[in-house]
Task: inverse folding
């Protein structure tokens, strides 16, 4: 299978998996008490003016949207999984939360122009291939108003394990580049798809979806190329956290 076709399949499987898992949110998983995530959301909010417009890109079931609303901001959440958005709308019904909207849209399809004061993308970019990273960051930059703030998380990898997964994947004939972990997806995805969502563990779900782990220096270079200046970095909860600002 050629790489472009394979990547298209990986993206489609990720969407299908999250559609399948969607009923688990607010029932099985609930709100994750990720201290570092919450700390950086507070840092992000501290950089915004009052009543700002925020894009929650790759929002899933809207795990952190309550924090954004409580701070007095309006929010548009987007995700490629329609079923995850359905869970978000159940938890945040429009009649009770008029400042919150949801729309089905992938990160690769964003086309906003200077619409938002802030953009967050939390626990989503690990499912994005290296070919799509520069374009998505450029789309974030275009979505921000001058001086707008971006907060993204990048999943932290153990490079020895990534290297071993890469070698196993190449041996299977997968069209990988280094940093991609996909050697167990075929079996794990088939198993997860056959199970009721209540029977799927977090570890099973993680193995069943494509991951890419870019080196930190590559992420910094891509942000710079997109016209986004890093203001603060940190680590915690298994992720690197980056706050960046669009050049005015």
Result:
């Amino acid at each position: 299978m050629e790489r472009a076709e394979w990547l298209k399949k990986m993206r489609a499987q990720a969407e299908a998996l999250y559609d399948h898992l969607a009923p688990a949110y607010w029932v099985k998983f609930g709100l994750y008490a990720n201290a570092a995530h919450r700390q950086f959301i507070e840092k992000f909010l501290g950089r915004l003016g009052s009543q700002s417009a925020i894009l929650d890109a790759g929002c899933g079931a809207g795990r952190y949207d309550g924090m954004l609303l409580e701070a007095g901001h309006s929010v548009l959440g987007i995700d490629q999984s329609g079923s995850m958005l359905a869970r978000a709308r159940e938890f945040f019904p429009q009649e009770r939360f008029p400042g919150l909207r949801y729309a089905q849209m992938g990160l690769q399809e964003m086309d906003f122009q200077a619409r938002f004061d802030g953009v967050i993308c939390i626990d989503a970019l690990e499912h994005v291939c290296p070919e799509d990273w520069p374009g998505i960051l450029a789309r974030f930059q275009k979505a921000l108003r001058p001086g707008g703030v971006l907060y993204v998380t990048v999943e932290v990898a153990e490079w020895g394990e990534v290297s071993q997964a890469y070698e196993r994947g190449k041996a299977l004939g997968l069209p990988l580049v280094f940093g991609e972990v996909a050697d167990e997806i075929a079996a794990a995805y088939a198993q997860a798809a056959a199970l009721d969502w209540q029977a799927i563990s977090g570890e099973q779900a993680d193995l069943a979806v494509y991951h890419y782990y870019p080196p930190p220096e590559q992420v910094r270079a891509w942000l710079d190329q997109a016209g986004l200046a890093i203001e603060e970095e940190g680590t915690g909860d298994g992720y690197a956290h980056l706050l960046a600002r669009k050049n005015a």
Summary: The mean pLDDT is 95. The first strand starts at residue 53 and ends at 57. The radius of gyration is 18 Å.
